[in-house]
């Protein structure tokens, strides 16, 4: 009897229709094709999600997170209607109410604040794509207390990049994947920019380029690196400066690049008695001065035909002015930065450091590449070719989330610049609207007035003490103490300090805390248990210390239980979003790009997109940006705002398909009522390509500068020099030395002088000086897994199968010393607290470091998970071991556990000790179960799509 093959449909009908939009499962913002099928009820439902091959970010590639978006959209944890608290905070006891009641209640709470004291509202948002919009709303309300997640994520990287070279990595820039020959990563886990990096590494490895990974943990990208450098946490800056030392010692730096495009030749006042000591010599127009090699005389840095001299000094009126290059040579050729001097602390041999420096130099200079593209620079010189150093870098939270992170990130940027590998073929390239120098960004504003908008943008880049957000008595104007002497350059705010400061009434009490997509009662807070106590703490009258909490989320997260009023958001497939050039665009180095999300399906619950809710609430409160002259609502919803709002004439949230004088245009133009339809038709995005002759040397290339003006990035060309030496930092140092009208408090003078050095330095993480290193000898880190991004991932029925719980990974020496076997349990103790967790062995790990995946652990009752879910019994957070404050010094002051320059949360400074203990029934600490407004999800999650 012949064998009969089974009847299989080898080409099943996937969908009836494909709707193209933008993924929201991580911050890559990849393009996706959402396949729809019509069900028995005649309604189309999501059947399948794949990558969009035409999209500029992912070109069809989609990761596990993106594919699992279908499970996110159908999650049992989705909130179903507005909620008003009925039980105690934290209990999760609510009643469902209608939207009119919810918005009336919110307006009832907020209107008196706006009328009398707008700063009594603190409005902070998590990782989303509408920060320019939420900032605009808060500014119209009049509160200075607004920021987003960057202060506890990566502000050190972003701010250091802006102050040094006008941009950084990820959303600011990326490697020139087409030409780079050596790619070096620092502190990059699997979550950031994952698809583009995976695609890029694949491209460069295919043609034989090498990858060097610097990270205490060898996972993800570092696992596929040709060379892994398992550095000791917190010492990256020291390692980088040792590389700088070697490159300068051997003369392997790009002197021509430094002279033309950086402030290395700019003259610095060298008189210690002068109130301008350490500042640049400037002409009558305020332009920094250099010595022109052609004439030997002073000249403005950007004068036509000038060839700046790196060597010559200038003496006038008894004061010697030396070029920045002299100061750099003095600092970095010092033996303290020699490989032999730093090797033990970094956990890298001197021989290894020298070998890496030599490899960087060899590729940069011996394998330089030249493109036949003519371009003209800002001094009027025309160049026939573009020569590049094919070495590129990428770095993120791993070097950013330390209390020395700002200077470490600055050091990395300086390393790139010394090699001449920024904005050149083969190097790191900026993505429009970057590069933008710090001085053209807004300054932070904090002046409030009853019933009035704030006097300017909340966030910005201070150029000196005059830009700090201080009250007349010198106290902080903001609840998070951003832009104060404690952390002067806090460009993204300090989200991790909001609840702690509000609870302490330091610098003042607030009335209402409004949060969006910020799980501050769990994995988005240091000192998790302490924060939960602060959210529920009452005063002597029995009233909550933080009187009101309004929260918006799409899911029943841990934070929902602590809200007094919950405004349920939609999923990302049910709303409009704007991924804007005004905010966090999806550009690539060859073009400016923005994108939208749109409702590919309608919600089946009584939920609304939070941005549309703000349009309604803004009108109810009479906010000027959200009402017409007659008091009526200006924008019917967020889609209407995206279409009609203009930040200034001709510039709106989206740059594509605007109305020009002769028809549709991209960049500048009047609003177009059909703009969103054009985006939807084009796959949800718009790309404006940069001309070939303008794609490199962007800060100095007049072709790029003119193109940027044309599309609305600049109002006028903005060429500038890279800031190896940061004059704004020196201005704060001068104040600490006693110069100027605005002076720091005495207790901060020495810290400002020590940390705010204008040339990058390294100092030990602050926790090292506050805890006993002998008692707590082990470094403890968290990383985001590639299969999950934020805490919402482990409610996902598909992704939970990859990461249902998380062990603490121990290196071989620690694992064997304590007699562990995989599956044993350990008590992990810090100066702040302790946890008891399962352990596992990992050989490819720095010998002084332990680590785990972040945000896997969940609280019982949250996310519609079962009470015995592994995420709640074996999953855990290191957050319980980390405090938002450093241990007390005995001076009665509260010292934030942050970078003293930017306020970046120092998540990765944590030091612990470890001991083996008998296995408990579940991970400690054990938190009581929350009641859930959505109940517990089914054991099996399945449904049929289609007829």
TrEMBL record:
Q: Which domain of life is it from?
A: Bacteria
UniProtKB keywords: 4Fe-4S, Iron, Iron-sulfur, Metal-binding, Oxidoreductase
Domain 4Fe-4S Mo/W bis-MGD-type positions: 16-77
Q: Which PROSITE patterns match?
A: 4FE4S_MOW_BIS_MGD (PS51669)
* Swiss-Prot/TrEMBL cofactor(s): [4Fe-4S] cluster
The UniProt entry lists the main location of this chain as other
Where are the stretches annotated Disordered?
Answer: 438-458
Q: Where is this protein found?
A: Cell envelope
SUPFAM superfamilies found in the cross-reference section: ADC-like, Formate dehydrogenase/DMSO reductase, domains 1-3
Which family does the UniProt entry place this protein in?
A: Belongs to the prokaryotic molybdopterin-containing oxidoreductase family.
PANTHER family per the UniProt record, alphabetical: DMSO REDUCTASE CHAIN A, TUNGSTEN-CONTAINING FORMYLMETHANOFURAN DEHYDROGENASE 2 SUBUNIT B
Q: What is this protein called?
A: Molybdopterin oxidoreductase family protein
* Organism of origin: Roseovarius aquimarinus
